[in-house]
């Protein structure tokens, strides 16, 4: 694989300050600890408490279902202040959580109560070294911060996170698998790839009504073991309030020319779905311009959402069809749950 996770910088290693199955909470009064002048916080570091407007920015989450709660937040402006926040938490036995975009939905994060939020959002630097062809980002950087600069520099990051590592192997796999707080990443360096197809993707949004769900899932199953590396197919079972039925909304994206894309998608497109939208999308607009443009509404914060996932080794059409039919029955029986969906 050409992309690789080259280097991780950790502020410190600190084992298990957030239990993932039982509640960890603190009765320590954080105000005197965090406002002690001897902390010498950097000028731009923000310390906030629940009554402060800054506290909302530091802690507001995408989903509020079973969420952690905080007695205070630190938004460090420097790596040294990240270390300081972690050290103070450990010294005073206060549970803490470092967070980036607050988009994570692990329901077990509710195991942290009255803790300290270490909001990494100010550490959102994006540095591109053109000659070394590397991308270095701060620990609070969000994808939206990376997309435009890396695209403008002529690189592609779509395979970045699936690439292999080249250093700090134990840390890399540890941070991916250990759950919260194995350590706090303050920066990471990646090796991006050159732009493919001039950075243009072919995006195909398709709607299949309930009556076509069997043919769609059989077509999807036909890709088992043969799906081209350049093709990504995402399928959503959702409720359509206009038709009063369950439906399939599918977003298929191909990293290549439209001609190649349509050929790769032929088993699905040959079913003649009633609604097809085909567009050329620069990859830096991949999130906002594909999937029926639903990214913005999907990302609205502060909503109650509970998510559950399973890994599929192979996709079974009969299981998908049965799931679709169960969802259709569920939508009819529980109108209040019609915003529920399944993403494959
Ligand atoms: C609608 C939606 C679509 C998604 N689609 C995809 C997808 O296509 N592919 C995919 O891979 N994922 C996807 N995700 C999952 C998403 O990538 C993860 O939830 C990710 O953790 C969110 O990052 P965040 O910075 O918002 O995390 P946060 O919610 O801020 O944190 C999540 C976890 O990461 C830890 N963490 C955050 N920053 C640091 C740091 N600097 N150092 C150490 N630990 C840290 C936190 O402690 C916490 O345990 C999706 C999520 C949503 C809500």
Automatic annotation (TrEMBL):
Keywords: FAD, Flavoprotein, Oxidoreductase, Signal. The keyword Transport does not apply. Residues 65-259 form the FAD-binding PCMH-type domain. Pfam families: FAD_binding_4 (PF01565). The keyword Oxidoreductase applies. It comes from the Eukaryota. Residues 1-21 form the signal peptide. GO terms for molecular function: FAD binding; oxidoreductase activity. Its cofactor is FAD. Belongs to the oxygen-dependent FAD-linked oxidoreductase family. This is Uu.00g010150.m01.CDS01. It comes from Anthostomella pinea.
């Amino acid at each position: 694989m050409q992309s690789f996770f080259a280097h991780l910088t950790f502020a410190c290693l600190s084992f298990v300050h957030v239990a993932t199955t039982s509640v960890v909470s603190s009765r320590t009064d954080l105000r005197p600890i965090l406002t002690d002048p001897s902390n010498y916080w950097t000028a731009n570091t923000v310390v906030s408490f629940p009554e402060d407007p800054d506290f909302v920015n530091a802690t507001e989450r995408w989903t509020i279902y079973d969420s952690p709660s905080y007695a205070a937040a630190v938004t460090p402006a420097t790596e040294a202040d990240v270390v300081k926040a972690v050290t103070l938490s450990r010294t005073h036995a206060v549970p803490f959580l470092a967070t980036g975009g607050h988009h994570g939905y692990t329901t077990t994060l509710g195991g942290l109560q009255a803790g300290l939020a270490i909001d990494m959002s100010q550490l959102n630097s994006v540095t591109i070294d053109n000659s070394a062809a590397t991308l270095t980002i701060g620990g609070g950087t969000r994808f939206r911060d990376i997309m435009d600069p890396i695209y403008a520099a002529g690189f592609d990051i779509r395979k970045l996170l699936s690439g292999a590592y080249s250093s700090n192997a134990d840390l890399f796999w540890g941070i991916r698998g250990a759950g919260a707080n194995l350590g706090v990443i303050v920066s990471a360096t990646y090796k991006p790839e050159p732009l493919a197809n001039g950075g243009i993707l072919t995006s195909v949004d398709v709607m299949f009504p309930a009556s076509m769900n069997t043919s769609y899932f059989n077509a999807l199953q036909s890709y088992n073991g043969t799906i081209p590396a350049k093709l990504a197919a995402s399928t959503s079972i959702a409720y359509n309030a206009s038709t009063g039925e369950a439906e399939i909304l599918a977003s298929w994206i191909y990293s290549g020319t439209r001609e190649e894309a349509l050929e790769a998608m032929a088993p699905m497109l040959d079913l003649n779905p009633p609604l097809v939208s085909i567009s050329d999308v620069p990859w830096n607009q991949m999130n906002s311009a594909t999937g029926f443009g639903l990214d913005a509404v999907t990302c609205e914060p502060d909503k109650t959402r509970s998510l559950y996932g399973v890994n599929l080794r192979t996709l079974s059409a009969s299981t998908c069809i049965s799931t679709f039919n169960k969802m259709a029955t569920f939508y009819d029986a529980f109108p209040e749950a019609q915003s529920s969906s399944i993403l494959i």
